Amino acid sequence: MCPTLLVLTVTDDAIAAEGVELTYADGTQAVRGVDLTVPRGEFFGFLGPNGAGKTTTIKTLVTLLRPTAGSIRVNGFDALTESRSVRETVGYMAQETSVDPELTARENLRFACDAYGVPRSDRADRIDELLELVDLADVADKKADDFSGGMQKRLDAATALVHRPPLVFLDEPTTGLDPKARNRLWEYFRRINERGTTIFLTTQYLEEADELCDRLAVILDGELVSEGSPAELKQEVGGEILDVSVEGDEGDRRTAARIARDGDIFEPSAAVDVSEEGITVTSERARSKGTDLLVALRDEGLTVTGFNVRAPTLDDVFLAITGEHVETDGADGSDTAVDSLAADGGERAEGDDRFEGGDDA
Ligand SMILES: Nc1ncnc2c1ncn2[C@@H]1O[C@H](COP(=O)(O)OP(=O)(O)OP(=O)(O)O)[C@@H](O)[C@H]1O
């Protein structure tokens, strides 16, 4: 067992945060009164639209930013007064890759071992084990510059784990990767979670959250608005989803939505949204009243080209909570999105991301 684990109190949650607020110097209130508890060993997902406050929250939890208000305990340590201990017991895979393209995979891991103070006698074995774990043993001595985006991400994830942290933060770790590369990372994340590591994940891909996470929280404008297991959140949507495709233009789709809303077909709490193909109705009566809707649309002269009743997905949950679908930029399957992550890193290097806090820092 890792020495740091020995000093942790077994009853402590991995994360216990209360009333966390963070206001940036320009007055932006990025995080507003967030309470979070993540038990040890959980695979926890943190979701929200762009700019909702996910990265800012993570940065306060890993002590990169000092909260304006609130209390945070991570692995049993106070993030304000014991920030060094927090940093020693967490791994952080940021949105911007930390991989140095000029170094080989092994050298990148050696560098991370230096940074995290991994004892010299443990390094060679630890590096071999991690290279094996992320399937990079064959290319250990090749420059990271030659790696695909997926390989760089796997290496980046490995560098966050050289000190065997009991808790790891993954900030959009699979953005821009093709489905195959994403699936390999999922396998890897599952493996480290099964070994007992608590995982705090943010992602743009709701199927990723659904697939991996035990529990989710949704943040909107800096506030937590929903929390539960993927199944619980789907239940909260209330009923099933009826997707109806309608021939014609947006005007026709709007007419269809009006009929679904006003036609006395569904319960008043049913939600009707205009989709790209037609309309989507979320209703307890989606199955039993679907055909009534088809008749009403036909009577209005509309042509229905498709009709499907299904269980809600996390995308429906997200739409119900935030009023928008998740934007998945860089999700075109190309590995080039790693470049855009690097560009993102440049934009962020304006001062707030430096280690600022901690009396023991
Ligand atoms: N350094 C900064 N200075 C001022 N405002 C900032 C800074 N960094 C982020 N913000 C603002 O804080 C809010 C929350 O941003 P944050 O990056 O935490 O959101 P996010 O949910 O992680 O979004 P994304 O998914 O786009 O990364 C946004 O309004 C953002 O514009």
Automatic annotation (TrEMBL):
Domain ABC transporter: 15-246
One Pfam short name: DrrA1-3_C
One annotated GO molecular function: ATP binding
GO biological process: daunorubicin transport; doxorubicin transport
Biased composition (Basic and acidic residues): 345-361
Key words of the record: ATP-binding, Nucleotide-binding, Transport
Annotated region described as Disordered, given as residue ranges: 327-361
TM ranges: none
InterPro entries, sorted: AAA+_ATPase, ABC_transporter-like_ATP-bd, ABC_transporter_ATP-binding, DrrA, DrrA1/2-like_C, P-loop_NTPase
The organism's place on the tree of life at top rank: Archaea
PANTHER family: ABC TRANSPORTER ATP-BINDING PROTEIN (PTHR42711), ABC TRANSPORTER ATP-BINDING PROTEIN NATA (PTHR42711:SF5)
UniProt family annotation: Belongs to the ABC transporter superfamily. Drug exporter-1 (DrugE1) (TC 3.A.1.105) family.
Protein name per UniProt: ABC transporter ATP-binding protein
